[in-house]
Each structure stands twice: as C-alpha cells, then as structure tokens.
Design a protein that fits this description.
156 residues; 4 helices; eight-stranded antiparallel sheet; Hypothetical Protein Pfu-838710-001
Length: 156
C-alpha cells in the first residue's frame, strides 16, 4: 500500500522552527534490506516493494558492522520535526548527498493529501523523483544525484 506522503525540496533549514535532529546512518544491502544506526540504536529493516518497513529489529553493533560490509550504498542524514505542523519532517543530507533538504508531509487520508497547500517556504514537489526515497537516492551516481538536485533546486 502506498504511503500518503508528499515530498518537497528546500534550499535550507535556516529560520525554520525544528526539533533537535536525529542522526541516521543507513546502509542498503539490497532492495528489501537495509540497516541503520539511529542515534545510538542499531536496526535491521525489511522493506516491501513500496518502500514500507514491514519488519524492524534491533541488532548488535557487531552484526551492524558485518552487514555494513555487504552494503552497496550509505546515506547519512539528520531528521527534524517541524514544530509548527506535526505532519511535517525535514531530512538534511550529509556526505555524498550534501545539499539535499527533503520535506516530507504525511497525511491521514487521501482527501487531506489532495487538499494540502504547501507552505510558502517549500520548493518544488519531488514526490515522484529519485530524490523522494532513500532507497532510490542510494542507487544514483554522484553525477545523477547532482543533476536531479540542480533540476529541482533551480525551479524553487
């Protein structure tokens, strides 16, 4: 089942009222399996074809380190909650994906999703682009990533 989420790009998180960040360090093993270090927790997540987490278990640091060796991609990002709207979170990407700030707005119904008017500080919608999901982002070369980022940021 598709998640009721729309995604937008922004140029910066400056002047936004945000929570303290949670650091994610994610490694993709294959299309159905990723591991992550979320603050100080180590987790293994199984994904369905829609990128929904269907199983999440805590793992040891040793298991994390062993699985990390089998990964094809790494994503490091900070995740913030937007304090003025509990439906909104912002992902700030670091390392290889530096410069990407993705806003995610989650809805409880299709009607709410259709009627939503984005905030004036939000840029172009990227819901159906390779920048919308970490799994798709992880498969882009650095050149493809930069081209996508330029394409969407240039139209804010």
């Amino acid at each position: 089942m598709r998640k009721l989420t729309r995604r937008f790009i922004i140029n910066s998180i400056e002047n936004l009222e945000l929570s303290k960040p949670i650091r994610y360090e994610r490694y993709y093993i294959n299309n159905e399996l990723r591991i992550q270090k979320k603050d100080i927790k180590y987790q293994k997540e199984k994904l369905d074809i829609y990128n929904n987490v269907i199983e999440k278990v805590e793992i040891s640091e040793n298991e994390f380190c062993e699985l990390k060796k089998k990964s094809y991609s790494k994503i490091i990002r900070n995740s913030y909650l937007y304090l003025k709207d509990p439906r909104v979170s912002i992902k700030e990407y670091l390392d290889k994906y530096d410069g990407l700030y993705r806003v995610e707005v989650k809805f409880t119904s299709e009607n709410e999703e259709k009627e939503y008017v984005k905030e004036c500080w939000m840029g172009k919608e990227i819901t159906y682009s390779p920048l919308a999901f970490d799994k798709d982002l992880s498969k882009l070369s650095i050149e493809e990533f930069r081209a996508e980022l330029t394409r969407f940021k240039g139209e804010n």
